[in-house]
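Escalated from tier 1: iron/sulfur cluster holo job.
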Amino acid sequence: MNTVKSLRFTCIRCGKCCTDKNTIVNLTYFDILRIKNGLKLNIDEIIDILGFYTFDKPLSSEEEKRMTISPIETERGFAFIGLLKNSSGACYFYESNDEKCLIYNLRPIFCKTFPFSFGILKKVNNEVNAEIDIFYTEKGKKFCLGIGKDAPLIDKDHWINLGTRALQELKKNHNLIKEWNNSVRIGKIIPTVKKFLIIIFKLENL
Ligand code: SF4
Ligand code: SF4
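Tier 2 regenerated the structure:
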C-alpha cells in the first residue's frame, strides 16, 4: 500500500481524464458557483453547460451512501450533475486542438484533485486540523499517465491542503443534496433544476 510520502505524480497533460467518455465530471455546488462567477453566467447559461446523468433504475440507500457525490432528484429523474460532454464524450471545456482546459483556473474540485482521493485519518479538535490520507483513485491508477515510478514525489503539503478543502466542500455539498432530496421526497418542493440552482445561488450570499 502507498503512503502519502511515496505517492508519485506529475500531470503530463495527456488529456485522458478530460476525454474519457465513461467519466462524469461531477460538480459540487461550490464548483457551480465558481464557474458561474468566473464566466459571469446567468442561470440559463449555467444550465446550458450542465449535463444531467440520470439512472435507469432507482438506487438503493447503500449504493447512494457509497457515492462521493450523491445524485439529486430532478424533473428528469435521479441524476448526477456534471459538466456537459461533447459528441465524442470529452468534457465540454476540453480544447482538443491545444489539448488544454478552457476553464483551468475554475476547473471543478474533482479535476483539481485527480488522480487522488482523500479520507480523514484522525480528527484533531475539528475537521480543519484533521489528518488527511491521500490515495490514487481507481480511474487514476487505470489511465493517468502522470502516475509512475519515474514521476516525482508529490508535494505533500499542497495535496493535503487541497484534500482538506475538497473534503470540506464535499461534506457541505452532501448535506445540501440530502436536504434537497428529503424535501422532494416529502413533497415540500417540486424538483426542478432551476430551483436547485436558485438555492445554490442564494447560498453564496449567506
Ligand atoms: S473542466 Fe477542464 S480539467 Fe476538468 S475535465 Fe473539463 S477540460 Fe478537463
Ligand atoms: S490523466 Fe493524469 S497526466 Fe493525463 S491530463 Fe489527467 S491528470 Fe494529467
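DSSP finds eight helices and seven strands in the chain.
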